[in-house]
Amino acid sequence: MVNEATATTDTDHFADSTPMKSGPASRQPPQVEFPLLHCIDWSFNDADTDEHVHGPHNYPAQMPPQIPRTLFQYFQLTGDLTRGDWVYDPFSGSGTTAVEARLAGLNSLSHDVNPFACELTQANAIPLDPSLLTVFRDRLLTGLQTELQNVRERHHADAEIAVQKPAVREGWFPYPQLYELCKIRDRITVLKAETPDAPVCDGIIRLFRVALAYTTRRVSYQRNGEFKRHRIADADRDDHDPDVFDIFTDQLSETIDALRTYTAIAPHTCTTTVLQTDSRKAEHLDPNSIDIVLTSPPYGDHATTVAYGQYSQDPAIVAWGRDYEEMRQVDKDGLGGKNEILEPLPTLEQWSPTLAETLDSLRKKDGRADDALDFFTDFYAVLEDVARVVKPGQPVVWVVGNRTMSRVPIPTHLITLELCNHLGFTHETTLARDIPDKTLPWENAPENLPGVTNELMASEYILLMRAPEATA
Ligand SMILES: C[S@@+](CC[C@H](N)C(=O)[O-])C[C@H]1O[C@@H](n2cnc3c(N)ncnc32)[C@H](O)[C@@H]1O
Fold first, then answer.
1. Dihedrals φ, ψ of 427, to 5°?
2. Where does 410-450 have alpha helices with state H?
């Protein structure tokens, strides 16, 4: 399942062994209470959650960087983590955990089924040479405005425009803007071809593609503020005449500034490894090789909660030349998406009484009990694998949100806790947080009736656990 093309390890000055090669000894968990953790407002409503690389490119259900930052600091204070230790995030998204891991002097390994998330994680978490960035940016931008102006003029004169159209669906982009996006894509491709194959150059090219991905989304008819693919109204499309050059260059300069700031504060001696892979099947990781897991899993199957694939589809097709079907597959590959279906585990209901009650409520309402069981069967496969790869007694942090299905609340935090208990994890404490600012389908009604709404998710829980102790 590992896609070698997107498996990147940034190993500039790295001197330690990777989790895929070794299995160091376990440490004893420290005996600590948690007053400090309970004094913190984990909602981080007034905090700047868009600092440096966390800002320029949005990703659905991003975790505030303050969560991993605070917890890495905390576990460094307790002695659970020391610099050079390994962090594993099975659900990387934009790479918030990987960025904060490096800032804390930790190595990280991240997985995601979404190729766009893998690119974004690498673009965000791996520092780059600032002077090379400037040189490459100048090469990319020299003559770009004139070239795009030329495209506009040819389009208005009905002249032919020589570009290979990307595999996006017709009707989702204005013209000539789609051609202009292609011209930027082609310039990046030429730059890449003229550049030596070296991690630092690849990183710069990736950064340019991330800025193009953002521009693609802004230019398309996709409605802002929504993660599912919905177009703006027909009437509004006539007025939608975005300036590709302005959007791209503004975004590029914001991205480069953010990366410069990050590069100045981030240690360059850490490793950031990102794999496009399904975390249900992480057999490539060695047992007892990870020092901490800190992750926010999806709230439910992508199709009915947050459609990460739909969100990423056009940006990945335009900026990376990804295939249309491949991008459509992402929402089926996510947990509960019924790809390579695992045998549903009815025993999950014995291990988690809360899951049993929840499924009963769904069955009584003729609700989506099978879908819920599929999701938790998939999720359990990841929990099981995490139990295998984390060193005994080391911290494991799940940031989970509770959704509803068929109007039945799904207490994912309790179900996670009970399933983890079954696997031998120890629960240390649970921290609650509000998520008022997220762009989520807060009020989707299952019936889809106008005016009928239903709160899907208003809070998240941070579950602090310890990995199972080794059995004799
Ligand atoms: C809540 S998001 C993570 C957000 C991330 N913490 C951030 O700050 O950006 C969950 C991610 O899990 C990924 N995902 C879902 N199922 C997966 C699986 N089976 N294996 C790996 N990644 C998966 C989704 O593609 C999505 O990017």
1. -90, 125
2. 412-423
Cα(174) to centroid of ligand 1, in Å? 31
Least confident of 164-173, 246-255, 391-400: 164-173
Please report the pLDDT score of residue 344 as a whole number.
67
What residues does ligand 1 touch, defined as CB less than 6 Å away? 59, 61-63, 90-91, 93-94, 96, 111-114, 117, 278-280, 296, 298, 308, 334-335
Q: What are φ and ψ of residue 394, in 5° steps?
A: -80, 160
Q: Which atom of ligand 1 is nearest to 308's Cα?
A: 25
Domains of the chain by residue range? 4-125+274-300+335-466, 130-263
Contact 75, 82 (CB under 8 A): no
Q: Report the separation in Å between the CA atom of 341 and the middle of ligand 1, taken as the mean of its atom positions.
A: 18
Q: What average pLDDT does range 398-415 have in this prediction?
A: 93
The residue nearest atom 16 of ligand 1, judged by CA position, is: 334
pLDDT in tens, 437-460: 544 444 444 444 444 444 455 679
Asked whether the predicted pLDDT for residue 395 surpasses 80, the reply is: yes
**On the CB side of 438, how many CA atoms lie within 13 Å of its CA?**
25
Distance 112 CA to ligand 1 centre (A): 6
- Asked if residue 406 lies in contact with residue 362, where contact means CB atoms within 8 angstroms, the answer is yes
CA of 96, closest atom in ligand 1: 8
**C-alpha–C-alpha distance, residues 285 and 283, integer Å:** 5
Instruction: Give the pLDDT of residue 31.
Output: 44
For position 6, what pLDDT does the model report? 44
109 Cα–ligand 1 center, Å: 13
Element (H, E) at 38: helix 35-38
Does the structural domain 4-125+274-300+335-466 have CATH classification 3.40.50.150? yes
Ligand 1 centroid distance, CA of 444 (Å): 21
Q: Which residues pair with 275 in a beta bridge?
A: 111
Whole-number Å distance between alpha carbons of 270 and 262: 14
The answer for residues whose C-beta is within 8 angstroms of residue 465's C-beta and 6 or more apart is 395, 396, 397, 398, 420, 425, 426, 427, 428
**Which of helix, strand or coil describes residue 87?**
strand
